[in-house]
Fold each of these.
Amino acid sequence: MAEWRIIAEQVLRVLNVVLACYFIAGNGTYTVLILVSLVSVWVHSQRVGGEGPHRLLELSVTPPVTIIMPAFNEEDIIVQSVRSTLKAEYPGLEVLVVDDGSTDATLERLIAAFDLVRVDLIYRQLLPTQPIRGFYLGRRITNLTVISKRNGGKPDALNSGLNLCRTPYFCTLDADCILERDALLRLMRPVLASPVNTAVSSGVVRVLNGCGVENGQVARIGLPRSRLERFQVVEYLRSFLFGRAGWNLVGGTLIVSGAFALFHSLTVVEAGGFSTDTVTEDTELILRLRRWAREQKRRLRMSFSSDPVCWVQCPSSVSMLARQRRRWQMGLCQTLWKNSSMHFNRHYGVVGLLSFPFHTYIEALGAAVEFAGYSAIPLALLSGIAVPHFYLPILVLGLTYSAFLSIGSVVLEDLTHRRYSSLKDFFTLLLYALLENFGYRQLILCFRLQGYLKFHRGFRQWEKVVHDAPNP
Amino acid sequence: MPVVSEIAYTGTFCTLLAVGTLIALALVRRKQRAKRFREVDELRRLSFPIISSLAAGTLDYEPALQVLSEIFPSGPDRAQVVERVLFGGVNPASISMPVLRRLALDFGLVELWERRLLCCTNPVSWRQAVSHPENTLGRIRTLRILPRAQSAERLGLIGHAPSWRLLVRALEDPHPEVRSAAAFALGAIAEPQSFPALVDRLRDIVLTPSAVLSLRHIKAALVCFPLRQASELVESLKHSHPRVRYLAADVVCEMVDRSRREGGAEELPLLNPEDLAPDLADLFLTRLVSDDNPDVRARTAPVIARLDDPRASLQLVTLLNDVRWFVRLHAVRAVAQPRFRTLAEHVTRRLTDVNWRVREAAVRALLSFGPAEVRRLVNHYLTTQDRYSLEQIAEELERLRLLPGQPGPYAHRSGWGKAQVTGRLIGLGS
């Protein structure tokens, strides 16, 4: 018995060291990211705030763009989403909706709402996809095309759209998203400014829940009523404003939200299009593009800007949130595993040496470490093992620091873009940034662990997240 | 181990302090912004009716300036206040440009912007700045990129031509934002003397691997100049580097296209010698049309198609039969106007081109030529054995929304039966 106790105490000590390392590495990186982002997002917001992107409308060098919108069983929101997308301000904009074998009335609603007529177009399969059922063109709206195909998942739908895309750039947009009118122009700005070929340009995804929508555009910005959704608002701010902005500045972008991102068509086709063997095709494509660029000895740039905004409906129930987070975690693990050759590989520069290991150890494996940390206290207490006296101070520091990071992102948003302009909203967000660590974070941890387990079991299935229709 | 606990508690305390500081910072900034916006709004409320009257011509400039001088508080930061009122947050284009330009000059804004730009035109390296303390302040000033970028942008916005030299120097600014703003400003001002400097930068982008200017920005600036300025690209068009030749040809091509868009005419007007210098036109017709670089050849087609020269058609036929598909594509697109219906036979040959984009462009070109060529297209459609060509025509008719009601008129014009046209479509599965 005594031996068992000694072993358990030793294990607890080792766990402590692991937790301390995890804490220092994770939060150290986050601290650097938040400092870097604070400067870059502030400078960027000041710069674009005064300028406005509208001069790009008149430039002859602004390349045309196709928005590819995959849709599967989105009958409730598809018409509104397409209407909102067609209103985007952009010269030479094409909208391509891919109905991925919906079993509801998604296609019928599109046909009725936009007066579509079935046509036969030549389908050149640059990328392999499921068979096409038909093409539809708008009688009055000339820049709208709808593809109906057999179900093959989101990457397959995106590949179908890419096969029909004729523009040098395309933008992926989820069917439950509302694009801000000038978001595409803003997304194109870094592409035009870059001396190097920009393969990917991504923007910010914000939570639509709680906002008022009129004529397919966000007319009133507000916070959602439910606590679960409010926590997600803080999470999105943290993830986009300092996580991605920071990595972008050091050239280590690894994650791009496929809900709203601009890609260079030819580069994506040459790299093999969207892969169907992971459930996060966006992140997988980013990593593959990086590998491809290295193999082909091409210089590619991936940019992130904090001003192009796309509003997305976040899950409003725990079950839907669980599905989403399981998928994200599973997809991240799949993608990192698939591209493990980049791990600490100096040939990939910042990505190989910093970004990839960070996403592996802190983002992917962090869930397991955090779970072990939380489990240690009750287990130790139940088994009568003395918890090391420095354990609790470290836990308190960890939670406080985590709250600091969330509060930092809320403040960063307030100092720069300030979409939530009322003081009440600001304080509400601060409160939720603080409370996030007590309950919500642990809930997300459970879903991440489930995703992790699913990855280990070799799951490939996409769990569909059903969203509520936006507020009128 | 008590050290660990102590560190953890100190860390927690510092974190809480940082949280408090951040929140305080956000609140102070909110308050400052609210105060500043109130002041600016008040100044706008007082000054905008006068500026509007000035723009409408109902008020003389001098007395209006006098009133505005009284509205804007005098002091060392008056220019900044006026700048905030006239340019910050509102669309300055909503104010009459000549009025805005005069006000910017009289309130010292132009001087302010030029001063800001001037501070960084000859930046020293950080190493020099550290080794020579007198340079340190100047180097630190280069970090303030926003005022410089905005200054360049605003000089372009009001079209202040005398600032062009300074803007050309700003193309060497340490920060890319300022460089791009300067390039756009030079395009907006379109001062003829600044054109060669931009052409030099265009060349540098190709010839100097470390060049950090955006090619698209320089191109966008060059395209803003009037077409007659293109003669200064002759040297680049004869350059030994194929990419320099291509970029120069591309700029001329875009300038020609822009002049068309500005004209707004349905039928593309021919370029006269005042628009495009004869030696430049000659260069396109003789040398560039047979350039080694296919990109250059491709770019010549849209320019040649606008030349009033008997050699133009012959050269376009050469380009229509080029070995490279994208040269043929550009040529087919360039001839897609009724003036070139004499080339219909050559375009019809492109209906069986190996590249689908060329086939597609050929169908569109024939449809744009007029009824006789539409008949030619239908004839080809009914007689050809080339399935790719058939598909392409059918797709293009569908894309142009011509199919549902069209087999009838096509059949009528071509002399073939409606049933035959429909039969072929059915054969294709349409």
Amino acid sequence: MELATFIQTIANSVVAGSIYATVAVGLALAFGVMQMANHAHGEFFMLGAYVVYVFYALGGMPFPFAVLLAIPTIAVIGLLTERLIFRPTRGNVLAGFMATAGLTWILQVAAGRIWGLAFMKKIPTPYMGAATIAGAQIGLQRVIIIPAACILLGLLWFFLYRVKLGKGLRACAQDPEAAALQGISINKMTALAMGIAGAYAGVAGALMAPIHAVTPYMGRDLLITAFIVVIVGGMASIEGAVLAAFLLGFIHTFITTIFDATSGVMVGVAFMAFILIVKPTGLMGRVKA
Amino acid sequence: MSVLPFFAREYHVEILIIFLINVILATSYRLIATTGDWTLCHVVLLGVGAYASALMAKHFGWPFWMTAPLAGATAGLVGLGIVYPLLRTVGFGFFIASLAIGEFIRLIWIKFHTPFGGPRGMINIPYVGELGPIDFYEAIPYYFMTLVITLVCVIIMYRIDRSRIGDTFKSIYEDDILAASIGIRVGRYRSLAFVLGSFFAGIAGALMAHRLNAIDPHIFGLDEMVYLLVWVVAGGTATFAGPIIGVAVMSFLFEWTRPLLEWRPLFFGAILIGFLIFMPGGLESLIPKFTRLFGNRNAVPAKAEQPAGAKEPVV
């Protein structure tokens, strides 16, 4: 591999890892608080991309504004999912997950009906130009994902470890009953977790919109990756999810560059099976997956 | 069921054949689910059986009565391979790890053009030939062959369910730690359930491959898996008949919504959510309610409802 290609692949790996991390932290957070995961998480990502399509490509708003708009929009969808699906099925690990598998279909059909099943939505690239490092060219549109993800993950860390509400969220993830005895409302915390999960998946989709084929089914491949990330990192561990996201980002991007995309996903799954065999709790988890 | 095909059009006989295959699939899914392990790769194991049978028939020219059991055995072996890492997980982790591993197998089919035919799959799979004067190429003979195989499979699974092994599976579902403490090897029995379920899924796959004549990786995708979940959840898993009821009712709805092709996933998604929230016991939970309403009021109360995937959350 040439040096330029090598540097370019590393940059792409970091970009992929940033996106995986932004998507997977929401999944890990929600799993920690309510022991349930959201099958429609990939569709939240997809809807985030459509928010950018509607407000930036169709509405002519500035790109950063459209991305910021994705945060409250998808957060509200996350809150609705919590209220209408996860709360009625609480205490049943798989029911919420299977019900959101139904929600996946509903959102896919709805997106297809509203915006059409066209192969790809044309979204003009807001940041043309490329950064050149040692002969490797990296599109600016990709580069901005890295600081954006760093800011988002930093904000989440600050919220979870420095803000009282976030500390309550972590307490709830550690022991829901003890947290409830301290006066923390489980309902509010699960709603908050799902809101954050939705916001993060949505903003990741919004950032990816100009460099990814925007279709109603774009969330599906990412969902499997996000699940692998969460299992490898350790089910409820947010730090583990971030670490595993970057590992997976490097694995996927390098294998895809050297061989092809199918092999990339296959090696990712094999990596997950390997981690499950040697360390069933995941890299940084305390509970068995 | 035995006179039905004579009164139906050929198209409807084809639907009945697919229905019977789905009965094997849903019943074998329940066999695994009785241990509390809900998997998301069962349709992929159906595909393993279909591909195995198709490859054996196409490349070695073996007859169907040989390839079908071997397809089951192949699916069982693949199941044994997958369940090894999966045993490290319980409940929810099992669910999503099996999704990823199933995707791995599908990607193998997509990636390797020889012998699997890549993304476009395999075509010209030999039909089941003639047996004496009966030509199984025709829909009605094939229907009866499928009916017999389905009955045999379902009866075997019923016997397993009623046997000591089946009770052991259910004890693992109730409390795996307690089961382990009385000397049940939990891991071994969970693998056994998974392998048995995979075996019957493989046989269903062989039946499917030789009827459809062509298979590709997309018909064993996640969408089909969620349809299987819809059947099993709608029927319920507490009794043996639950998944069969689910397949029957949902297949009817599936054909009935054929004019609304694009809206169908939305419709079934709503059905899945509705059942999980409002009727977690599935359609089978209605039966004791009806018998209580119309029949003997002093009847023995029915077995406790077993909602889909209910297990204490693992903290």
Amino acid sequence: MSKYFDDSASSAEIFLRHTLNRRELLLRGTAGIIAFAIPLGAHARPTLDEAIRSFTGGAEVRTGRVKFEISPLVENGNAVPVSVDVESPMTAVDHVRRIALFNEKNPQADVAIFHLSARAGRARIATRIRLATSQVVVAAAEMSDGSFWMSKASVIVTLAACIEDVSKS
Amino acid sequence: MSPSHDARADQRTKTAARGEIIEIRALVAHPMETGYREGPNGAVIPRNIIKRFVCKYAGEEVFAAELFPAIAANPYIAFTTVATTTGTLTFEWIDDQGEVQAASAEITVT
């Protein structure tokens, strides 16, 4: 797992570990502004392809330029490390605008959408995701020229996330 | 946004050369309750996730993320930014209930 934490591109780094602190501000009034399109009911999720299409607005998505790292065999679906590295010069005229993650079989197809700019210097993100069962996961990138690129990964999960039941523990 | 929010920010190596790409790793404590689980009484536990994360550098947004229930509890997000100027990096995590957790870090650019 150390590959996620040893990144030679960064000789200076900031590791921010923020604990739950009850002094957080209450952002009243703006709480409802960020609205996500949550399609249909809880049991009728869009397919993986539909989710990707809603991200691209129907544009063609080519395979390539996206390096998606995720373990092919995962013991614990509650926290699966992933990283996405997109081939891009990250200049003002040619950079990655968004990186998105989608899944095939969780209750919801979206995982995350990251917004980048030329100021990132490098198009690389890492996070930890939940996988409810063995499935296909997709990393897609939108470039500043409007093109879309993606990479797919198949993951086998031996202990699933999302379905654990508090009442039975 | 109390200064004590910075208490857990790691103080090592916060100096960078201008133009250098720095990696930022942000970790926040949050249950990321999916809204798909049942509690002991059989009732569904209401969804409460961090749905948005924003990083500003000297007041300007340099990175943001929209998160969904498939992001693991205690969200970890790593990303990069180019060191441009000495200043403050601020971080905000906003959840479904409108609660904002904030942190900041100073960076010296040489």
